[in-house]
Structure formats: structure tokens, C-alpha cells
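Morning run. Coffee first, then this:
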Amino acid sequence: MSAIQPRTELRESSLAPIKQSADVLPVRSVATAQAASTRVAALDFTKGALVFIMVLYHWLNYFISVEGTGYRYLRFLTPSFIFITGFFVSYVYLRKYKTGDPRLWKRLLDRGLKLAAVFAALNLLIGLALKSAGPSPLKDWHLYVSGVSADGKAAFAVLLPISYLLILSAALVQVKRLWSQAFHAACVLSIAAALLLDFHGTSNGHLQLISIGLLGTSIGFLSIDRINSISRHPWLLLLAYGGYLTALTLWTERYPLQIAGVCLSLLVIYTAGCRFERPAAVRQCVDLVGRYSLLGYIVQIAFLQVLARAAHRMGSGYGVAVLCFGIALTLTIASVAMMDRLRARNAVANRLYSAIFA
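And here it is:
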């Protein structure tokens, strides 16, 4: 997802099921304190880069336009988060626990239900804060079944398919006890079903995203050395990525191209994370945001929504829009850094964070 080997450290994504200690760590940073764990740093970089690109994506939505051909080149973002979640299910949890260990499926189920609750709570808070927003998306069954909100007002919608993927993974863990290929079979069947719907001119957003998440799970069974072997050929990777961009320009975005876009985009970002360590301050910032990717995803949307309403009162203009982008990016980074320091110094804050995000 190079000539320079990534550091042999791995910590699970904040958008993937994670387990964190509830103890206060007597160190400068929680992220620094856990540097000795089995984390691949390039994966943290990949997640952090996705959060920063997501800031750009939502900024374009709020301040420029909700439509435009340029968006097709950013469509890989949402499925990339789902893919990484699936990747960590197999790469971390299915290696950490034996298949028959009840902690495995309970952990996945607990994490999935938590994310569904976070989605509901966030949308409830938005509905209470903006009483003129219309019907609550929590009552919109289209959103839960097809992945498309009837009124387009649902926020943090990416949390739903992630929740579904984790709950499905908890069930597949039980099947895997009887059949070792359960996850691979589910991946093939879901992709086939999504392709069939796409061929007939229809689609289901949740099915497409979950199938991409299951693809991530299948790839997560590979060793990190196999993934690194691909990233050691950056010119071939860039050539393939250029072919994908050409196809995306010539044809409308379809599900098969979305799969290719997710895999190639993540590999390009991952390869960059393997190769570039400078400037050190920038790299550390991206890695830190990657370790708190769920928090970063949530707060950047909140900041951009507040800034968009404030900018509307101040007047339009590209100068104001660019300023708001800088403010949103800065506040997102500051929020993550503040949470990391707070968790390192305060046991209550650490437990609260773990209860919500872990």
C-alpha cells in the first residue's frame, strides 16, 4: 500500500478496531510511548495523508462547489478508509487472536456497534444544534440500507459502512472457525454482487464499500514484505496510477475503477510514506494524525461546518475560502495533538477516549 524499508511498527487505525491501554503513560506523548509496538510507520502516514486529503475534499464541498468533474479524482477517499479498516481486521486482529478466541469477535462487534452509536450521536447533536435542518437522517431508512440519504443531510456517513464491515467481520470470524477461506469467499461474493448491480446500471453504496473493505481484509492476510515488494517499484506503480487517471478522465467513474483507484492510491501514498522522512516535523505531524484518524475525520468536518457558516456571514470570496481551509487544517492538527498530550497526562481523559474511539 521502496528502497527504504518502513519502520517495523504497527498500530491500528483509529478508523479500524483498536485496543489502547487505559493507563496514563508517564511520557511526553501516547503515540511516542507506543513507538516500540509492532507498528508500520508508513501505514500511519497513509492514514494521516487520507485525513488531510479529506479536509481538502470537504473544504471544496463547503466553500467551492458540491459538483464538478474534479471530484472524480477524490472519490477514492471514502472507500480507502473502509479498505484500511478491513486491512487491519486481518493484519492485526486475526493475527493477534486465535480464531476461536471469543475476545476476537466480541472486540469487532463492540467496535462496530460503537461506531454506529457515534454516527447516531453526532447526527443527533447536529439536529439539535440546527433545528432548521429538517428531518433527522437517523429516521432515513434509505441511508441505512442503500447508503444514500434521501435529503443528502446525513453527516459522518462513512462511519456506517465501517460499522457494518466490523459487525460482518465479527460474524465471519465464527464462520472462519469452520472454513478458513470465509473472508476470501465473502470478498469474492460481495465484489461479484456489486459488479452485477453496477453492470445493470444500479448500485448499493454500502455493498460497494463493504466489498472494498473485505478486499482490504483479504489483502491484510499478506505479509508486509509482500506489500513492500510492490512499493519497491515506484515507477511501475506511477505508470499504473497514470493509467488509472487516464481511464478516470475518459470514462465515468464506475465501481471497477473505484476498486483500482483505492488500491493504487493507497499504494502510492504508502510508498511515499516508506521513502520520505523529511521534513521531520511534517512527517511526525502526518503520522500523529494517522494514529488518531477517526478523531481527525470527525473534528475536521465540525470545524469546516462552523467556518462555512461564519464565512457566509462575512461574505464570499476565494481569500476567505483559502483562509478557512488553513484554519480548519490547523485546528484539526491542534485537536489531535491536544488529545494525544491529554491522554498522556490524564487517566480520565485516556479512559474516555478509549471508551469512545477504541
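Residues 30-357 form one domain. Good start to the day.
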